[in-house]
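Figure 3 (text version): structure tokens given as input.
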């Protein structure tokens, strides 16, 4: 599960045309974490909590604390008003709540709990540094491509054990992310998101976040 405590930057409800031609309400929020990363979030009518969230939208304001879980995500091109087109990450969110900042002390961060699917360490720049790359999966079957660079002090601890981490429960925080086209061996190119992670815990291998 990917869970998120964040601060709302913008929020609104938009009517979008569905595949059947009918108009459907789309809840859209842009949220920001403590490191300044922004995430574009959506909730569609097939979520049981959307109707209640739509009713609450007039009371939702910028800088308000929000928490939610991520049910899925999509990476697709988005065309802007100036005609430019860029890849964008959209998080599909569920179980949205609004903690009372007076009673809840939480870190504004995205946290993952799931299972390690596999990983590997790659030397880069002539072997001067290392890229740690691994994929995790949540309870809904979403896969999360993850990276940790050598500027993270924990990387040196993880590199020797990454080959043994498959199928292990894992937890980490999202430090940042990048969306870019990825070219595959068959020549096709697809958009992909890479999450830069930090504070990784793998209890089965005695790896704990500092």
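Below: residues designed for each position.
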């Amino acid at each position: 599960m990917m869970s998120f405590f964040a601060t709302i930057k913008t929020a609104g409800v938009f009517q979008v045309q569905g595949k059947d031609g009918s108009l459907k309400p789309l809840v859209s929020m842009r949220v920001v974490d403590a490191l300044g990363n922004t995430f574009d979030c959506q909730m569609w009518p097939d979520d049981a909590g959307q109707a209640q969230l739509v009713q609450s939208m007039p009371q939702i304001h910028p800088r308000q604390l929000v928490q939610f879980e991520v049910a899925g995500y999509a990476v697709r091109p988005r065309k802007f008003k100036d005609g430019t087109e860029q890849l964008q990450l959209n998080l599909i969110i569920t179980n949205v709540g609004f903690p009372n900042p007076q009673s809840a002390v939480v870190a504004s961060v995205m946290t993952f709990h799931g299972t390690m699917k596999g990983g590997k360490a790659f030397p880069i720049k002539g072997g001067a540094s290392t890229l740690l790359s691994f994929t995790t999966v949540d309870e809904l079957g979403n896969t999360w491509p993850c990276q940790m660079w050598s500027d993270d002090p924990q990387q040196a601890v993880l590199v020797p054990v990454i080959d043994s981490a498959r199928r292990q429960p894992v937890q980490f925080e999202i430090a940042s992310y990048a969306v870019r086209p990825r070219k595959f061996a068959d020549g096709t190119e697809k958009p992909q998101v890479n999450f830069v992670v930090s504070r990784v815990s793998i209890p089965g291998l005695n790896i704990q976040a500092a």
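Strands lie at 2-17, 23-32, 38-43, 65-79, 85-97, 110-124, 129-137, 143-149, 169-183, 189-201.
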